[in-house]
Structure formats: C-alpha cells, structure tokens
C-alpha cells in the first residue's frame, strides 16, 4: 500500500502510495486516490480514508490539489484541506505543488506515470509536495516548490516517487530536444526521456545536493501489480500519490 521514504531523524513522514489495498474495481483497482478519473466518489473517499489510516496522517487536514501541469505553489496553513480530502473531494487550489510549515497537515501530489516529489528540510520545519510531469518540469514546478519552502535549498532533502521509466516513455523529437537542453543529454536515451533523471537535475539546479535526492526506480508502466499507469491503461486508470507531512508533537 505504501513505500516509505527514509527521512532520517527528522519529524517528517514521507511515502508513496501504490495501487494495492483499496476498494475500487476495474481500471481503478484498487487504491485509487484520484477523484477526476471516473471512479465512484464513494470509492475514492474510502480509499483516501484507508490510506490516511494506514499511513497515520489526518484525513481532515490533508491537502489535495487540482493539478494543472503548471508551476504554481500553494502555501497550506494549519487548517490544511479543511475536510475536502475525503469529503467533497475538491482540490484545494489549482496548483501542482504545495508547501507547509504546519505540523499534521499532509500534502499530496498525485500521478499515474508523472513523477511526484516529496521535499523536507533538515530540521523538519517545512515540507513540500509536487506533481512533476514533463509539462510541470518544463514550466519550472520543481524550482518553484524548492523556492516556496523559504529555506536554503542546501538544507533540503527530496524523494522522487515511482514514475514511468525510460523503458516505457518514448516521446517526440521536440520534447527530447527540450529536455536534453534543460537537463542534460543523458535524460534522453533513444527516443525516450527519463523523467526521474530530469526531476533529479531540476532539483540539483534548484540547489538540492545530489546526495540528498532519492529517485525511486520502479516503472509505473512495467509494474502493473503495484502502480497505475496512464501510458499503459489510458484515461480510466487510477492515481497514486506522494504524501509528506510534519508529525505533530515531534
Ligand atoms: Zn517501463
């Protein structure tokens, strides 16, 4: 159900959800966290409650964004998502990244091939989550998320979640050229782009130290058992998520 991220001795928890352990059926089976992919809202609510309970974050304050492949960042306060996470299911804002200093407010970024990123500071005082598909990466969402933490990037750690690997992500020549130009020739191999490596480079360009960046190498399209994949299954697939929060009372 979850892939835990090692956050050392900080009061931060970070994890990536998988598709396992939920109640949704068909292409959304089973732990679909996304509310905009045609799944039944009651199933999405149930899945979100299941994930929150299993992971140990507060569903009443969890923040889900309306993701638009942009670079805007939401600064979430102590109220977080104010019950929308497993209630109305409405996104809190049209943003692809969120940042918070409020303990107990879990930030979610969702994807079904797109990398999702969890960021936290050495002292655990600030966390951020971002959805970083190729459009968001090119738009600058990674740098914007780092900047919005308000701390020196050298004090940050980042984990990039499961995403479509270069094994399964052929793209057109124009995008290959853009990505290679921005993030290095080695983000392109053959006709494919390595989105995880592009995220790593974007984090490094934003000032995060290479040794503080972890990139999950699981390919969402290859691993049908564990992950949703838009490339593999089309529009009626589910969403997995990155979740990051500061533990209360730590
Ligand atoms: Zn693959």
Structure description:
By secondary structure, the protein is α+β, with helices and mostly antiparallel strands. It has one domain (2-163, 215-246): CNF1/YfiH-like putative cysteine hydrolases. The protein is 22% helix and 22% strand. The chain contains six helices and 13 strands. The strands form three sheets. A six-stranded mixed sheet has the order 4-5-8-7-9-12. The protein has a five-stranded mixed sheet with strand order 1-2-13-6-3, with no helix packed on it. A hairpin with a 2-residue loop joins strand 10 and strand 11 (192-193). The longest helix is centred in the N-terminal third of the chain and has 15 residues, at 41-55. The chain is globular. The site of zinc ion has 6 residues, from loops. Zinc ion (ZN) is lined by residues 165, 167-168, 219, 221-222.
**Terminal Cα span:** 25 Å
Bound molecules: zinc ion
Instruction: Write down the overall geometry.
Output: globular
Which CATH architecture? 4-Layer Sandwich
Q: Low-confidence stretches at least 5 residues in length (pLDDT < 50)?
A: none
């Amino acid at each position: 159900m979850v892939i835990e991220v090692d956050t050392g001795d900080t009061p931060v928890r970070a994890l990536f959800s998988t598709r396992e352990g939920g109640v949704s059926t068909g292409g959304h089976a089973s732990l679909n966290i996304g509310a905009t992919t045609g799944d039944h809202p009651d199933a999405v609510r149930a899945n979100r409650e299941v994930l929150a309970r299993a992971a140990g974050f507060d569903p009443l304050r969890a923040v889900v964004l309306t993701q638009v492949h942009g670079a805007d960042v939401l600064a979430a306060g102590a109220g977080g998502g104010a019950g929308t996470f497993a209630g109305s299911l409405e996104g809190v804002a049209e943003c692809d990244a969120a940042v918070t200093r409020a303990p107990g407010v879990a930030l979610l970024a969702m994807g079904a091939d797109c990398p999702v990123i969890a960021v936290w500071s050495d002292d655990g005082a600030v966390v951020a989550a971002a959805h970083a598909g190729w459009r968001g990466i090119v738009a600058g969402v990674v740098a914007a998320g780092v900047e919005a933490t308000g701390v020196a990037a050298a004090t940050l750690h980042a984990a990039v979640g499961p995403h479509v690997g270069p094994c399964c992500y052929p793209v057109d020549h124009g995008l290959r050229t853009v990505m290679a130009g921005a993030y290095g020739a080695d983000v392109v191999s053959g006709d494919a782009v390595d989105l995880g490596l592009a995220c790593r480079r974007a984090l490094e360009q934003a000032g995060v130290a290479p040794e503080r960046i972890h990139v999950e190498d699981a390919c969402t399209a290859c691993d049908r058992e564990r992950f949703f994949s838009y490339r593999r299954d089309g529009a009626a697939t589910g969403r997995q998520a990155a979740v990051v929060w500061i533990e209360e009372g730590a």
